[in-house]
């Protein structure tokens, strides 16, 4: 194992951060493993204990945990300057790549070979989301209460169509209540260390939140003042600002809510296009939640006035990325000084454990939603008293998607192939199937 100075220079931190940002494929697990190898194993800049403690801390926060962990590492080594450098370099390479792919998608969406390519992408996404569901369920559902929370969350979303934020909030409150009475129901272990005796950093935290909120809201205020509340840029910015504070449990957890709102609520894109965007995000470096930038670009592209379609799409993509990731920096800079106290916050740990369990039900709902809209060309609404559920029209099944999705499942679950080769093989299968 290579060792280096435990206090790297800022220039060295920037070089390593850029390397991590360009190589951060494979979703949160792969990204966190990459950071662990580069920062802990090879350079020893952060200890194993500090790394794991910070990772647990990032799981408490809304937003992509890998990007927040990168920001924390930079903050730990070089304060706010280091946090900004490492956090931004984790995001920027993927943001530029997916912006370029979004522009290409907007121009080529109606070209035959391009549609065939993304037919394979959509089918692969079904298997990828199913894999995420099984992986997270195996990790998160260790107790009967957690399993019950997951089932309840699925029913609340799939049957009763309750809002995603309400489901997350309800699960969190139930977890806090359970942790106060019987924490073992959620698998919460007793704290291993006494709480710190240093004063609580309330003033510094409040200052960061106020300044960060002002920076976060500045572009939205500009859009509202110049374009008004009916413009697509305001709607995009406001929606993804709300989304940024409820993205507990990673990108897959919030994708269902985002997809349903973007597709059915705002009509910015179709369900198939939403699956295309997820496929693009899976193939690029950086956080998977970068799919929000694709959604923003398509929304701006299709309601461009007073801009050109390309300019409106780029502005909407940039605004989406801003309101999605600025809060991540605010959470780290505001709450990192509290990290050593979280091990003793039993109620908070209970709330997080319950939310994590509920997220399994949320991802199950996402899997169902994608399956209905990708495998079938048409759906119908059926009402049962106060309930209204969406069902596929059996005659509209797309056999090509079904076959390629089955192939993707075989490649992932049987042959253990990674996401990138699966997407490539499925894209090629899409070209063949469309030709047939």
Question: Could you walk me through the main structural features you see in this protein, from its secondary elements to its overall organization?
Answer:
The chain has two domains: 10-94, no CATH class; 115-435, no CATH class. Helix 5 runs antiparallel to helix 14, helix 5 runs antiparallel to helix 16 (419-435) and helix 10 (251-265) packs across helix 14 (346-375). The model has no long low-confidence stretch (mean pLDDT 88). It has helices at residues 10-23, 27-41, 48-59, 65-108, 112-140, 144-158, 164-181, 202-227, 232-244, 251-265, 271-283, 291-302, 309-335, 346-375, 399-414, 419-435; strands at residues 379-384, 387-392. It has a two-stranded antiparallel sheet with strand order 1-2. It is mostly helical and 436 residues long. The longest helix is centred in the N-terminal third of the chain and has 44 residues, at 65-108. The protein is globular and about 70 Å long. Strand 1 and strand 2 form a beta hairpin. Helices cover 72% and strands 3% of the residues. The protein is built from 16 helices and two strands.
The class by helix and strand makeup works out as mainly alpha
The strand count comes to 2
Q: Describe the main β-sheet briefly.
A: 2 strands, antiparallel
> pLDDT below 50 for ≥5 consecutive residues: which ranges?
none
| Strand percentage | under 5%
Helices and strands, in order, run as: HHHHHHHHHHHHHHEEHH
- Total domains: 2
In one word, what is the shape?
globular
* Contiguous helical run count: 16
Mean pLDDT: 88
- What is the share of helical residues? over 70%
Strand order in the sheet with the most strands? 1-2
Task: For the record, give the distance between the C-alpha atoms at the N and C termini, rounded to a whole number.
Answer: 52 Å
Rg, nearest Å: 22 Å
